[in-house]
Each structure stands twice: as C-alpha cells, then as structure tokens.
Amino acid sequence: MQLDHVVFGYGDRAPVLDGVDLELEPGTVTALVEPSGSGKTTVTRLIARFWDANQGAVRIGGVDVKDLSDEYRAAQLSLVFQDAYLFNESLRENIALGDPDASESEVLHAAELAQVTPIAERIPGGWDGSVGEGGKLLSGGDRQRVSIARALLKKAPILLLDEAIAALDRPYALPSSRCEAKSRCPSLSIRPKPSPTPTASRSLSTAASPRSVLIRSCSPATRATPPSGPAASKPSSGSLAAVM
Ligand SMILES: Nc1ncnc2c1ncn2[C@@H]1O[C@H](COP(=O)(O)OP(=O)(O)OP(=O)(O)O)[C@@H](O)[C@H]1O
Ligand SMILES: [Mg+2]
Asked: Best mutation site among 3, 8, 32, 41 for ligand 1, i.e. most ligand atoms within 8 A of its Cβ?
C-alpha cells in the first residue's frame, strides 16, 4: 500500500496532506501517530477512496485505487472506525457481516480474538441478542469490539484501524496471529499523538502491536518517510519519523 506524493485538501481549503509519501509492506503493522487534526483519518479516507487525492497517487498492490473496481477495492480493505456503527441485528449477525460465508466456528473465533465473548455472556439473548439500531444497546467499547471482530472475520489483505480501540476500557492488542497469515497484512493503525499520561501511553503501546510507528515530528509536516528501519528513527524537520 503506497501514498506517492499525495496532496489533498477538502474543497477549496488548504491541503491537509501536502506531498505525503508512505509505503506499507505486506506483513507489517504500522501505527500512524500525529496530533489531532493533522490528517490521519484523511489518509484512511483516501486509501478507501471516500475521497480522491488532488495530486499524487494512492496505490494498492502497485495499482492506483482509481483504477480498481469498487468491488475489488472493497475486498482488499477491512475498516474499523472510532464510531463503530452496528445494525439492528443480533450480536452474531453483526460479526458475520464481515464474511457472510464464514462458518459458525470462524465467527466465534473472531469474536474471541476481539473479546466479544463476554458481551454475549452478558446481554439478553446472548449471541442471538439484538444490539439495537446503531448498536445503541451496547457501550462504545463493546461496539468497537464487535466492529473489530467483524473486521478480523473479513478475509481482507489490508486492515485499517482508525482509533479503533479509543473506547475500550482496557488494553487491547491486535492478535499477533493475524499477521502470520500473509493474506491479512499490512495493517495501518491510526492513533492521536498521546498526551504524557499513563492511560494514553498504555493505549499507544497496545494499539496494534505495531512493528513501526510513524510520528509527525513537527507541524505543519507534509512529508512522510517510509518505515525503513532503525536508521529512520531520528525525527527530521517537517517529516514523519519511523520508529521501530
Ligand atoms: N469532511 C471534511 N470537510 C472539511 N474539512 C475536513 C473534513 N474532514 C476533516 N477535515 C479537516 O481536515 C483536517 C484533518 O482532519 P482529520 O480528521 O484527517 O484529522 P485527524 O488527524 O484524523 O484528527 P483526529 O486525531 O482528531 O482524529 C482537519 O483540519 C479537519 O478539520
Ligand atoms: Mg481522526
């Protein structure tokens, strides 16, 4: 997955991303950590093609996302957003949406990985219990767990997590087994740059067991450096620093 000198602004506004380069290799997990409002969610929107870059290219497997069919692109991506939306269906059905062909044991396995099982043990009706419209019968953290289980169930090569664990009340680490399956990588985990509080630090360290963390080192930063190893760990002016 690659951002190649991407420039993007919403409407006539100044660019949010101004010449960003980013390359994520298969089999890697990367956390993008930047201040609020700096464009992390925007990166995921461009990858998912909710918006198109004004200049530069976003590529998946070397192909510009504009040249991919909607079906193919959708099959490549699993997305988990901060505000997880659930359907007015059962707990089981909300997870199974990730892969309608999945077996019962696969659904339950994904649920277990995402720590959904305790929810089923708690809510009326268990796995067949309704979560309500939008998931309103569950807490924000529970909704995120269900959303993560749905994303893990989907057989998509790329997993994008945009503050996907922000509402969880305890540390959650993306199952390491996920990246043992080549078809399940790379992953990009989005986190706001942490304040120096124990809670924020804990969230960052458990966000997605990242192999690399991209941290914007100064503002306004415009250019990202690919996570190319320990040599790239020194922040440089106006760049994203890669930390292994
Ligand atoms: N739909 C939109 N229309 C206009 N401006 C937008 C839109 N979405 C985001 N922006 C602006 O683009 C900038 C980047 O927003 P974005 O949501 O990508 O930041 P972020 O890094 O994800 O922030 P946070 O950490 O708060 O989630 C912000 O200034 C925001 O106000
Ligand atoms: Mg965001």
From this structure: 41
Nearest CA to ligand 1 atom 26: 36
* C-beta 197 within 6 A of ligand 1: no
The answer to whether residue 195 scores a pLDDT higher than 60 is no
As a whole number of angstroms, the distance between CA 158 and CA 23 comes to 13
**Cis peptide bond upstream of 220, omega within 30:** yes
Contact 88, 133 (CB under 8 A): yes
Ligand 1 site, residue 50, Cβ cutoff 6 A: no
At 193, the amino acid letter reads K
**Topology of the domain comprising 69-169:** Rossmann fold (3.40.50)
Distance CA 233, CA 227 (A): 8
Per cent of the chain over pLDDT 90 is 53
Residue 162 C-alpha to ligand 2 middle, in angstroms? 7
Greater confidence (140 vs 163) lies with: 140
Cα 189 to averaged position of ligand 2 atoms, centre (Å)? 11
What sections of the chain are H helices per DSSP?
40-47, 70-76, 91-96, 104-113, 117-122, 140-153, 198-206
38 C-alpha to ligand 1 centroid (Å): 7
Domain ranges (residues) in the chain: 69-169
Quote the crossing angle between the two packed helices 140-153 and 104-113, to the nearest 10°.
Answer: 130
Q: Is 38 in the pocket of ligand 1 (CB under 6 A)?
A: yes
